C-alpha cells in the first residue's frame, strides 16, 4: 500500500496541474480565432469562400459591400444571419470567441 501512495499522489498532482492546459476556458489568454473558424465556419466558408452564396465571400471588399466593416458587424451576422447560414448564439459561441473568430476573418481574408 505504501509503495502506491507516492506514485498515485504524483499522478494526481500532474493531472491537476495539466488540466487547465486541456480545458477550453481561456483564463485570460488570447483566444485562437483560427481554431474557432475551423470548428464553426470553415465547412461553409472554405478559404474564405461561401458554398451557399458564391458572391458573398469573407473577402474584405465583399464584406464591405454588404455593410460589414468591423468585427462587431461580423458577430452581428453570426448571431442573426440571413437565409442559408446557421445561427450561432452566445451559448454556442461565446462573445469572446465570436470576436476572436471575427478578427481572424478580417486579418486572414483581405
Your description of this structure?
- With 110 residues, the protein is an all-alpha fold.
- The protein has one domain: Cytochrome c-like domain (Cytochrome Bc1 Complex, Chain D, domain 2, Orthogonal Bundle).
- The chain has helices at 2-22, 33-40, 60-65, 71-79, 95-108.
- Helix 2 crosses helix 5 and helix 4 packs across helix 5.
- Mean pLDDT is 82; it is low at 5-25.
Tally of individual helices: 5
Proportion of residues in β-strands: under 5%
How many discrete structural domains? Answer: 1
CATH architecture: Orthogonal Bundle
Provide the gyration radius in Å. Answer: 20 Å
Biggest β-sheet description: none
Query: Which regions have little confidence, pLDDT < 50, spanning 5+ residues?
Result: 5-25
Summarize the structure.
By secondary structure, this protein is mainly α.
Defining traits:
mainly alpha; about 55% helix; globular; single chain; Cytochrome Bc1 Complex, Chain D, domain 2; about 110 residues
Amino acid at each position: 500500500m505504501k509503495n502506491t501512495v507516492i506514485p498515485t499522489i504524483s499522478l494526481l498532482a500532474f493531472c491537476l496541474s495539466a488540466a487547465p492546459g486541456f480545458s477550453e476556458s481561456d483564463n485570460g489568454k488570447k483566444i485562437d480565432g483560427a481554431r474557432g473558424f475551423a470548428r464553426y465556419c470553415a465547412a461553409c466558408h472554405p478559404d474564405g469562400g461561401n458554398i451557399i452564396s458564391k458572391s458573398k465571400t469573407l473577402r474584405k471588399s465583399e464584406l464591405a459591400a454588404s455593410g460589414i466593416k468591423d468585427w462587431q458587424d461580423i458577430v452581428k451576422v453570426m448571431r442573426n444571419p440571413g437565409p442559408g447560414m446557421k445561427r450561432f448564439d452566445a451559448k454556442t459561441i461565446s462573445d469572446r470567441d465570436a470576436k476572436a473568430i471575427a478578427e481572424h476573418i478580417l486579418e486572414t481574408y483581405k
